[in-house]
Structures are given as C-alpha cells and as structure tokens.
Amino acid sequence: MIKIILKEIYLYRNKNKSKILSKFFKTGSGQYGEGDVFLGLTVPISRKIALKYKNISKAKILSLLKNKIHEVRLIGILILVFRYKEAKLKGKKEIVDFYLKNTKCINNWDLVDLSAHYILGDFLLGKKNKKILFKLAHSRNLWEQRIAIISTLAFIKKGKIKWTTKIAKIFINHKHDLIHKATGWMLREVGKKNIKELRKFLDANISQMPRTMLRYAIEKFPENIRKKYLRK
C-alpha cells in the first residue's frame, strides 16, 4: 500500500515548484528546514491524497511520517486530521497520543499549522488538564513549541483566550522568528474575539515583545493605533 501511495504522490511532482518550496521553507545549511526535501505538491492535492487513503493502518501512517519527503509527511499528518475528525472519544485520544509520540516527524511550520489545533487543540478543549501545552512550550524542540501556541487556536475559536496569552507570555523572550510569527498570529486571533484583552496583554508586555510578534499581533488594528504601538 505504501508503494501505491508513494507512486501516486510522485505523479504530482513539480520540479519548478519544488525549488520554490525548498527556498520558501528554508532548507539550506543552517536554516530551520535544513535537509527537508520537496516534490512540489500543492496542499489541495496533498489533502486529496490523504482523504483517499485515510483508512490505512497506523503502521502505514507512521511510515509516511518518517519519510524524508516533506509532502509525504504532510499527507500522513493530514490523514491523522481526517481520522481525528471522524473518531469517537477513545479514538481521538489514541490519535492525540500517536501525534504527540511522533512530534519529531512534525518538523516544519506548515506541518504544525495544518494539524496542531485540529488534533491536540480540539482534544484539550474539554479537558481541565492542559499541562501538556506548558510541557511543549518549554521543550527544546522548536516545532513542539510551535505546536503549543498553535494548538490554542482551537480555544480562541470558542472564545477561550487565557491559554493563548499564557503561552504567549512564555514566548515573550523567545529568540526564533518562527515562534514570534506564530505567537503574534495567535494574539491577532485573540483580538478578533476580545480586543480589550489583546490590548491589555500588549500594554503589559510591549517593552519585551519582539517586533515581529508585535507587528503580527496588531496587523488588523486601525493604522493610527498600530503606529502608536510601533512607536512604544
């Protein structure tokens, strides 16, 4: 089955797009995506393939996740997303456990952004114990850190914002641009639900916030207010 899936994936290979994606996802020496290999598939095509093979075994999903090709891993992750949405509570927990056990395979920002809030975030919505978010936020793994903040998008959509600001506070002094962007993005989403709470967070932390995080957070503000924050 894996050979069949891989054969279908390779049918959509686009060399020109693969070069563009390799540069976009920083695969050069010393960059965050160093060594990642792209075939040039679009996300819609990857979704289509994932939906087609969503019922394969977990062993086969793991085989996809461990593949060196970026889009193959993405398809494995999208299969988990599809499976999670259809699963009952016990099945959802099994998928979450599987997801967390294999975070080393979720090793680029799009892989995180297309899965974290759909799987981990959604699962934690009804749970009192959300300590896993703190564990991930304090991980030495950049992608686990990003999973922590992106997972909170599921909460934001339900009007629950405190976990986003808690994780954002942890990342105030983070050194990586990818965390600045992700955190700023989530703060911007907070603002769509509760602008007062976003401004309260900004006013309390603006002196420490990385500029990229701030710019992302205030992107939807009126120009005069945005400029005011940028001058602080």
From TrEMBL:
Tree of life domain: Bacteria
CDD domains recorded: AlkD_like (cd06561)
InterPro entries on file: ARM-type_fold, DNA_alkylation
Pfam families attached to this UniProt entry: DNA_alkylation (PF08713)
Gene3D superfamilies named among the record's database cross-references: 1.25.10.90
Coiled coil: none
Protein name: Alkylation repair enzyme protein
Organism: Candidatus Nomurabacteria bacterium GW2011_GWA1_36_15
